[in-house]
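Response to reviewer comment R2.3. The reviewers asked that we include at least one raw input/output pair. We reproduce the pair for Aminotransferase class V-fold PLP-dependent enzyme here without editing.
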Amino acid sequence: MTALDIDFVRAQFPAFAEPSLDGQAFFENAGGSYTCRQVIDRLTRFYTQRKVQPYAPYEASRLGGEEMDKARARLAALMGVAADELSFGPSTTQNTFVLAQAFRKLMKPGEAIIVTNQDHEANSGPWRRLAEEGIEIREWQIDPQTGHLDTAQLENLLDENVRLVCFPHCSNVVGEINPVAEITAMAHAAGAYVCVDGVSYAPHGLPNVDELGADIYLFSSYKTYGPHQGVMVIRRALGELLPNQAHYFNADSLYKRFTPAGPDHAQVAASAGMADYFEALASHHRHSGTAAETGAFVHDLMRAHEVKLLQPLLDAVKDRNGVRLLGPSQADTRAPTVALALNRAAEPAAAQLAEFGIMAGGGDFYAVRALEAMGIDPAEGVLRISFTHYTSEDEVAKLIEALDRVL
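Raw output as returned:
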């Protein structure tokens, strides 16, 4: 496996050369990542040269529209899906809400949706509200000690009434990577569709959605080195079955059917910078291939680096007195999003870490149901430490030293 060139990676992110951030290590990436230079450059160019209504015949408008189309097509190709199966919206929360309204029209009272209590509320709340329409909501519950989702329990929840199964690729507090392909196969065998919240997974490598088999895959570009957009993959068979949620004259356009608001032209165009960055990573590490192969290569490159850095951190906290590590203690089974339940409120601990140059967060992180299920008071919350592939070994060592002082 090729080793990640961390110096090359960090050179792609202006934040690492920013004087005001000098001496600080960023460990709240699960809340939003640094933005890569390629995205910033595209956003600046759009606002300075192409900030006009796109798709008109004059040059600035034509180029702006082309950039928007290329962003969608290139990201879709990296994820192994067709260009019109990927769309943008203002946020993943908003995208999920729109999807829930579409399923509300598709489903009948008495039919069921399975949700988990491991989720961020964005991929749980909109579906749960459909109970008001007579839809049965079944909760796939986590293990209260480990936060693990057991597929044997899912099997007991599935029957001919279930139309949709909603679950996270990984939780934003538990961190364990769920077996998406296995869960999807189980749901499909029972005649149900699958909606996967990938917000906490995608920053660690874009998945090949075609290989996973998921019908819906959602993530947030602002947590994946890009602008503040929600990215939504809806496979064609389901997308054409669900009722149109946009203007009636957009009903025949798959990527417009579930975006009732007009797109943010500049941010959609700038999202092509994410693809620029992934391709630059692949090229620098001497990889060539199709877009899907590039996506897989970059995914594995990022994950290998993160696993290497994550294990020492897990080892440093897993047996510490007064600290409860949520999720697995083995790095290869989880994302580098590490939540620690303390014997005190978490936010003041995050403030103490800031005194040592560590940027981290404390709170419930919209995972109230998961924390309550594990016996943690959401008001006290958890200390969350999260990083991505651009984090260095020196920064992890600095974090561990700071944790020794604070905890």
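The longest helix spans residues 291-317. The radius of gyration is 21 Å. Further pairs are available on request from the corresponding author.
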